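Figure 3 (text version): structure tokens given as input.
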């Protein structure tokens, strides 16, 4: 899952981003609304964690732009304004969820994951295919009852392939959705991750390489 965190309090932003990365998410961070609009125009995010009171461009305007521009990204507002009227207005301008500061980090993670599942088409909380079972919430992957020891990136790639439901996913799409902005598009990162994932999944093989196109389950 790829997340954009928009928060003008730099220390808080970096702390939250580090925590989300430990949960296996690919996270980009910006500190103002203008940068948020630039990033969302250039990248395909699953979830945007959006502070409401931002410099340059207010969070409300960022939210309206995403909702009105057809962005697939789900928006969770993360703000100190926690009154019912604030929540109502935030949801009214296009936010999908609203979490007031201070917040429990575990709750933020749960809400981000829930929004990430609300893609088109919507995904179930547990992904399954021919003996393979992946639970993104618990970060558990099993095959035929055997728990798989996957790295965060291996887990992310497997989740993306299962979510595609048999469709081909290109290496570029895997890199875009599974890694953050610092990933080098010219490396063999995806190919190496797929190779390691195949070894851990075992036989019979589940991941098919589609020449000149990508990979699929």
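Below: residues designed for each position.
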């Amino acid at each position: 899952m790829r997340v954009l965190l928009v928060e003008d309090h730099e220390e808080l932003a970096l702390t939250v981003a580090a925590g989300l990365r430990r949960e296996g998410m690919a996270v980009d961070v910006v500190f103002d609304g203008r940068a948020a609009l630039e990033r969302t125009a250039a990248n395909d995010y699953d979830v945007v964690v959006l502070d409401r009171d931002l410099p340059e461009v207010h969070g409300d305007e960022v939210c309206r732009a995403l909702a009105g521009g057809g962005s697939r990204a789900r928006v969770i507002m993360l703000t100190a304004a926690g009154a019912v009227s604030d929540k109502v207005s935030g949801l009214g301008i296009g936010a999908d969820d609203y979490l007031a500061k201070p917040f429990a980090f575990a709750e933020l993670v749960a809400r981000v994951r829930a929004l990430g599942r609300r893609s088109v088409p919507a995904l179930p909380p547990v992904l399954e295919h021919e003996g393979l079972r992946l639970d993104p919430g618990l970060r558990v992957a099993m095959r035929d009852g055997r728990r798989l020891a996957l790295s965060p990136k291996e887990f992310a790639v497997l989740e993306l392939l299962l979510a595609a439901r048999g469709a081909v996913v290109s290496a570029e799409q895997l890199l875009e959705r599974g890694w953050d902005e610092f990933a080098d598009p010219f490396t063999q990162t995806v190919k190496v991750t797929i190779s390691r994932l195949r070894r851990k999944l075992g036989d019979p093989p589940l991941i098919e390489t589609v020449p000149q196109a990508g990979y699929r389950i």
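The first helix runs from residue 10 to 22.
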